[in-house]
């Protein structure tokens, strides 16, 4: 098996820029791939981290409802969590919230004990080592170009020459749809990049958060809202928001790719999404440009937080799959072609579910041959 990675290191994009959370499976529709693979993957992830000395910890988290409308959504989350096999979920009143997080405030809450934190960059490095120890190879700084099938082999033109493989597995993340089209597939979805920006809490404010504090997410979106997370290396992270990125590697406002932006703006689904959720989108932009607005969203959860407590930190780019109808794809999505498998949608909780996703890919690929290239 050969894995080619375009960047000079593993986890250069989504895997190395996420919030570091081991997700429990609370949010996902029972019966969906997300629900099944997150539940399976969490158990496998914890075992792998322990075996390979990847820093991780089970911390638990609370989800806080700040009004009665959110309480109804909180009840649905509890139902989903139990349907997905979670145990020990606690319904909390205001006093119960403060028992877990003394500085948090809400009308009701849920405590979810299975949530944790991990170093996903270290995990990606450990996975690369495991591939090589099993006889595979990971080649860095190898960028795929033209793809074609000839004599029952995939011909993959790269910046380091031609590669051949009997089977092609496309795990291209933000570029997955583009790679699929280059391989002759015709996916209906388009990857539209969304940037999630983070802040960290100043040392004087870190005592305000013990572990993880989440809002009740908007059920219309696959994003979870700005939340507060204790990081595995120490400190508290706040975020992310979700703003349209102008590049598939658009970690800053000034990162612009004419090709990426044109693909986003020429896709009918983008304009349907913008029209349907204009107010929400403008709110996300405001939180991106205004630290005061970002702090206001966090103060709903922890009223003692102030704007001066936030320190600008990094960002990540989410490879969000979007349908032509303007609906955000809210599940993992695979598409098969001749001797090819394309992973077209693998957003959060893909890091948590990574080992289970790998097993799913292997299961699908087993009937397609024994040699693969990414």
- Average of per-residue pLDDT values: 94
Strand content: 25-35%
Please write the CATH class name of the largest domain: Alpha Beta
The coarse overall form would be globular
Whole-number count of domains: 3
Oligomeric state: single chain
The low-confidence runs, each spanning 5 or more residues with pLDDT under 50, are 370-374
Helix content: 25-40%
The helix/strand class is alpha+beta
Radius of gyration: 21 Å
Termini separation (Å)?
9 Å
CATH topology of the largest domain: FAD/NAD(P)-binding domain
Known CATH architecture of the largest domain: 3-Layer(bba) Sandwich
* Strand element count: 21
Number of helices: 10
For the largest beta-sheet, the strand count, sense and barrel status come to: 9 strands, mixed
Tell me what you see in this structure.
The protein has 374 residues and is of the alpha+beta class. The chain folds into 3 domains: 1-56 and 114-185 and 337-374, FAD/NAD(P)-binding domain (3-Layer(bba) Sandwich); 61-112, no CATH class; 190-328, D-Amino Acid Oxidase, Chain A, domain 2 (2-Layer Sandwich), CATH 3.30.9. It has helices at 33-51, 68-83, 94-100, 120-133, 176-182, 258-265, 268-276, 278-289, 291-299, 354-366; strands at 2-4, 21-22, 56-58, 61-65, 90-92, 108-112, 116-118, 137-139, 144-150, 153-158, 161-165, 167-170, 190-201, 212-215, 227-230, 236-239, 243-244, 310-322, 333-337, 340-345, 372-373. Strands 4, 5, 6, 13, 14, 15, 16, 17 and 18 form a 9-stranded mixed sheet that branches. A 4-stranded mixed sheet has the order 19-20-12-21, sandwiched between helices. Helix 1 packs across helix 10 and helix 8 packs across helix 9 (291-299). The protein is globular and about 70 Å long. The chain starts with a strand and ends with a strand.
């Amino acid at each position: 098996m050969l894995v080619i990675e375009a960047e000079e290191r593993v986890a250069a994009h989504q895997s190395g820029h996420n919030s570091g959370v081991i997700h429990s499976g609370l949010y996902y529709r029972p019966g969906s791939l997300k629900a099944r693979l997150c539940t399976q993957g969490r158990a496998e992830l914890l075992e792998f981290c322990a075996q390979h000395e990847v820093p991780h910890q089970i911390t638990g988290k609370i989800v806080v409802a700040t009004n009665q409308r959110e309480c109804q959504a909180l009840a649905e989350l509890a139902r989903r969590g139990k349907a997905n096999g979670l145990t020990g979920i606690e319904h909390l009143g205001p006093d119960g919230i403060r028992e877990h997080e003394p500085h948090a405030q809400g009308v009701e809450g849920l405590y979810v004990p299975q949530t944790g934190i991990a170093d996903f960059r270290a995990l990606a490095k450990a996975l690369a080592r495991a591939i090589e120890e099993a006889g595979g190879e990971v080649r860095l700084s190898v960028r795929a170009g033209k793809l074609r099938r000839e004599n029952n082999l995939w011909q993959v033109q790269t910046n380091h020459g031609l590669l051949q493989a009997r089977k092609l597995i496309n795990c291209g993340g933000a570029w997955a749809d583009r790679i699929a089209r280059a391989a002759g597939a015709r996916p209906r979805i388009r990857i539209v990049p969304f940037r999630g920006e983070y802040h960290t809490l100043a040392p004087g404010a870190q005592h305000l958060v013990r572990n993880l504090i989440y809002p009740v997410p908007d059920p219309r979106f696959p994003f979870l809202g700005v939340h507060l997370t204790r990081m595995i290396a120490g400190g508290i992270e706040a975020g992310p928001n979700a703003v349209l990125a102008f590049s598939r590697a658009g970690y800053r406002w000034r990162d612009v790719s004419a090709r990426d932006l044109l693909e986003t703006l020429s896709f009918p689904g983008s304009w349907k999404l913008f029209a349907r959720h204009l107010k929400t989108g403008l709110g996300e932009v405001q939180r991106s440009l205004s630290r005061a607005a970002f702090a206001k969203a966090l103060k709903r959860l922890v009223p003692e937080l102030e704007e001066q407590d936030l320190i600008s930190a990094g960002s990540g780019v989410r490879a969000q799959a979007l349908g032509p109808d303007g609906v955000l794809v809210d599940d993992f999505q695979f598409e098969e072609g001749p001797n090819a498998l394309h992973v077209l949608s693998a957003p959060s909780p893909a890091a948590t579910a990574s080992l289970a996703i790998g097993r799913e890919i292997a299961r699908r690929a087993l009937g397609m041959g024994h040699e693969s290239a990414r």
